Amino acid sequence: MKIFKSSFPVLALLAAWSAEAADMTAPASRPVATMEHAERRVHGGEHAQRPAAREWTSYPLLMRAMTKGAEQRGAPVLMTTKNIQPDKYAAHPPSGDAPRELELTLGGAKLEPLPEVGNYYWVTAREEQGDRITVASTTHYFSNPGPAPTKMLLMQKHELELIPQPLPREHGRYRENEDWKFLLRYNGQPLPSHAVKLETQNGSKNSFSSDAEGIVTVRFPADSKPAAPKKEGGGGHDHGPRSVPFVLQTEYEVNGKQYITAFNSTYSADAYAGRSLAWGTGFTLFGMLLASPLLRRKQDIRKAKAGVPDKAQAANTNTAKGE
Amino acid sequence: MLKKLFPTLSRFRFTVQLIMLFVTVYGGNVVGHYAAEKITGSLPALSCAYDKQNGGYCVLIPLQHQMHHRIGEALVKGQQVFNTVVLPLVITLASFFVFFVFLNKAFCGWICPMGTVQELAYKFGRLINRPLHRFEANNVGRVRPVKWLMLLVLVLGLPLMAGMGVAPDQVGDPYCQVCPSRIATTLLTADTEQIAMRTANPINFTLAAIGNTMFGFVLLAAFAARQPFCRICPMLSLNALFQKLSPMKLVKVQHDKCDKCGICTIACPMDIHEIWHNHGSKAFHEDCTMCGRCAEYCPDDDVIQIKYFGVPLFKSSREYFKARLKLESPEGMPKNKVIWLKTEGAKNG
Question: pLDDT grade, residue B78 (50/70/90)?
Fold first, then answer.
């Protein structure tokens, strides 16, 4: 374990070098320790990442590394961290089976999907320094048939945990102005009336408190900035405005030990960003207007034209009777 | 007991439709939140994934995604053909077919939430005494090819072209963008996001304008026409591709009285004249939604039957026909409002 830990700075340097090679637009002088990633949602919890300009949080982060071929569906991904020096990385499959320790490579910890295991993987990086235990967590989505992640989320993975209840499903995501619930627990038991802090790459900072059942309801702030126009073609996927990283973090001290846990993912613009309810209602009404002549009876039309009342209301259809 | 609860096939079907409307629109609250917990990811009915509470996903979603992301992209890259192209497509179509083989096109007539919404609108139209517009034998053929165009262009063609990079990315899921079920089912969950139009770029705006206009048109037209959207629905054509492979079949035998009758066509919500004029496999038309109304309103014993592996599940009978007429006319007018439409046979004779 110590060999792993002592070799980490070297691996991190090599990872940073490979990331630089993959992205020539990144500033050459960007320090390894402050390398950040803006993330664009691809599907579920799957993210592609880009270098960003400045550090936005001091909380532990666990992210996908920028590597060549990272966009390929179902391909293994490399995970890297920030603000934490992990002893080990682990991935919990959605089936709820035992976690796998991730192999460390030059670019980061290698996360590979297992066939028929499912879409969502819960990935953690854990650091133990004396009485201080820090865990960074995130999810990664592989397009991979298999069981739902309910069991994976419910099983205890570390002492102090922030568990999404539920995760955004396929075609869903965390979004501005939406409330999402997270379960805060210690040793598998809900932790009531405890503060949880939220920080976003757009600069928002909020604090929330867990209720009696340990549930923290997080409202994602409306702090998005205008997105750069997307390039046309190439078979990508347009999911609207760029997703923004966020991190939820909390601390708990018990028996002289300090536990820190964080969950990071991304959220995107408000559900109605880039949409217009007025236009939508207008075109719907336009469609109704087009259909409205169908609702008029022929005798009603004749009556309107003649300007006389028609007493033949007993007829029920436009077409002739013919039994 | 069952006969008291469901005196007619239509009553039984309507009950199933209401249950399935709940399952397809709100069922996620029962079966589970995640995709893996849904009834299926390839349901042969318009159960919309944009509805956050639904109980199953429409097969048209994975089909568009696979055309866009797998086949189109792989054709360009020319690699990993089997694992990334053939296998996912086969899995989608196989899971679709596993469901389809049990009910055939009854997914349209019994399960589809959009079909149920249109039927409810039509029933309401009868209550408020709106007219009935229908297609005759000489003009129904004009609308029938549209469903194939919808399947080929919107579900398969444009997503494939977007995946290959020769069409804009915004047309990666064009059918979903115009599907009225997306708007109808999300509105049923009090979610107005989908009726709000995308305005970010002209392509999204145009597709959304078409979708919203069509939704408004279909919703109101259904008061005075039966199943207006079903006639052009790509799910109808996709299901038609497989209808001969299912053991569930609509069967009609030749009968001397058929030429002078034609009530089956009057009863048919899809205006299928072939059920009147043809028999054998030709009577089971590609537009059939297996609602069973033709069998209910056939006045002769055993002429029209719904069979499963050759075993009749329902068959026409004179006694049932008489009882059925006391409740509702073939064109769907409730009791005490029975006015029959003029049939071609009646016109000629």
Answer: low
